[in-house]
Design goal:
heterodimer, A: mainly alpha, 7 helices, about 0% strand, globular, B: mainly alpha, 6 helices, about 80% helix
């Protein structure tokens, strides 16, 4: 289980960070998903862990979004300012040292642009894009992870790709 | 068209792979700690949920209590004093007499008995 989680934790973290726009919340969500997997499915076969973990992670992200929405509403009712979910994905960009500063800068810019564009997508499109493109799940597996039909996956995925291409053609 | 799309998707995937590879050391350390904590906690308490067999037992116990309370209410004999008290209360509320008459009811009872005796 430790080996499996070590293999998926970075991607899970980035997926959560793109979705939530915040590294701390992303870490909490990933830890929660890991805990749920260990607690409920440690005795299942290793080949099942991947799809199960994606499903758990996606539902944790959705739960977090729902809670954030409620918190925002309460904050607005009590006269506070609405929390800006779109705030500064640049802040979370990895700070790795590289012997190739121009190349590194280019990568950083591409990453920042991609992260910002993914973060702007509606949640379902975001999920469909990340699961299909990055995790390499097929349509049926994506549908299971997103708890929707294969047709919905196709629609969300196609819209996501269209929107991202329109925004990122110059960066990638 | 498909070729351009594939090119775009490959580029996006490469950027994401690079981001994964170049994640900063602080985040990697926090992820490692989170994983260890999750495994330790998860294995310490394998499941917070009640065992499956407890669900029907719990349901049966609840149903038994509900039926017992309903049966008790349904079959318990009505209290005659309570009924009587309720009837006399209704009489008081609907009577046309002055309320003082009811306050002095004991006096009128005594007067009545006294006049019978004499």
């Amino acid at each position: 289980m430790d080996r499996f989680l070590a293999g998926v934790e970075r991607r899970a973290f980035l997926t959560a960070r793109f979705a939530l726009g915040n590294a701390d919340d992303a870490l909490d969500v990933v830890q929660d998903a890991m805990l749920q997997l260990v607690r409920s499915y440690a005795n299942r076969g290793e080949q099942e862990w991947g799809p199960l973990f994606h499903t758990i992670l996606q539902s944790r992200i959705s739960d977090w979004r729902r809670r954030a929405k409620v918190r925002n509403r309460l904050r607005v009712w009590f006269g506070g300012k609405e929390e800006d979910g779109d705030s500064d994905p640049l802040q979370n960009i990895a700070d790795s040292r590289s012997p190739d500063p121009p190349g590194q800068l280019r990568d950083k810019q591409a990453m920042a642009a991609l992260e910002a564009a993914i973060h702007k997508l509606p949640p379902r499109q975001q999920q469909a894009f990340m699961l299909r493109v990055w995790e390499g799940l097929d349509i049926a597996q994506t549908a299971r992870a997103m708890k929707c039909s294969a047709g919905s996956v196709k629609t969300h995925y196609s819209r996501a790709v269209h929107a991202l291409r329109a925004q990122l053609e110059d960066h990638l | 068209m498909m070729e351009t799309e594939d090119k775009f998707l490959n580029a996006a995937k490469r950027v994401l792979d690079d981001a994964e590879k170049n994640l900063d050391a602080g985040t990697v350390a926090r992820l490692r700690a989170a994983r260890r904590e999750a495994i330790e906690q998860g294995l310490r308490r394998p499941s917070r949920m009640r065992p499956g067999w407890l669900l029907p037992v719990g349901g049966f116990a609840t149903a038994t209590i509900v039926f017992a309370v309903a049966g008790l209410l349904w079959f318990s004999a009505p209290n005659p004093n309570l009924l009587q008290a309720n009837v006399s209360d209704i009489e008081l509320l609907t009577a046309h007499e002055n309320p003082e008459f009811f306050a002095d009811l004991d006096f009128y009872d005594w007067l009545d008995n006294d006049s019978d005796a004499s």
